[in-house]
Specification:
Blueprint: E1 2-3, E2 11-17, E3 21-27, E4 33-34, H1 37-46, H2 51-62, H3 64-70
Antiparallel strand pairs: 1-2, 2-3, 3-4
Helix pairs in contact: 1-2
Pfam family, one: DUF3145
InterPro entries: DUF3145 (IPR021491)
Amino acid sequence: MTEEASAGVDGGRWSHTPELGIFHAVTDVHGNVMVPEDRIRAAMEIGHADPLLMQRELDLALGRAWDDELEPFRYAGDGAPVRWLHRVG
């Protein structure tokens, strides 16, 4: 779900998958995820000696796992692969 940015107000994006849970990010007028300075500093501190760990932290801040999981639902057209959803419970 997305909230479009408007004059003086940033937008937002919420993503959810059963396995990953909920991800929320603030977005700019173009839909880009805006990562807060403190989150970037934390990723740098956690991964200062390990570039792969820093990349993992930044991927988490950007919601990459949610994007990867939900990407098949963003495209529809003739010949596009179909992913069936089944009701559970």
